[in-house]
Amino acid sequence: MHLLDAHRAAGTEYTLEPALAADGVDEVLLGMLPKIKRWHTPPAVTVPLLLKTSDTGHAWLITPPVEDVPGSRRADPAEAAEAVVEGTAEGLDLLLWQRVGLDGAGLEVTGDAAAAKTFLAGPFTP
User: Which of 18, 25, 87, 100 is deepest in the core (most CB within 10 A)?
Assistant: First the structure.
């Protein structure tokens, strides 16, 4: 993400490679989300939410909180959830790092869209 920020600051175009972007999503959801209370109030999760990438085949399941912190784990892209957010790994990574809003990320939300949008309003990173 920092390389992308540097390119943007320099006014040059840069696209995150899908595998690198999926790793960034993994870092946020499995590395930072469990520790979110150190920096922010945890994002609201009211129903199971599946985040999946259309270009790399990755998926993560976010579950309602235990001890005030949402649960997160890698998932099968075909796993059922009450809300599903799908798009490119880059779009999901940029959204979680708050570099674009939901409308600019190119993601499709199905199921309980209100619950998905509430969760995705984040913040997720320090």
Answer: 25
- Over residues 25-79, the pLDDT tens digits come to 999 999 999 999 999 999 999 999 999 999 999 999 999 998 888 999 999 999 9
Task: Please say whether the beta carbons of 16 and 24 come within 8 A.
Answer: yes
Backbone angles phi, psi at 110, to 5 degrees: -125, 160
- Residues 74-111 as b/e (b if ≥16 CB within 10 A, e otherwise) read ebebeeebebbbbbbbbbbbbbbbeebebeebebebeb
Angle formed by the axes of helices 89-96 and 18-26, nearest 10°: 40
Q: The tokens of 24 are what?
A: 């960034």
Residue labelled with tokens 């520790």: 35
State the SS3 of 43-100.
CCCCCCEEEEECCCCCEEEEEEEECCEEEEEECCCCCCCCEEEEECHHHHHHHHCCCC
pTM of the model: 0.91
Distance (Å, rounded) from C-alpha 19 to C-alpha 74? 15
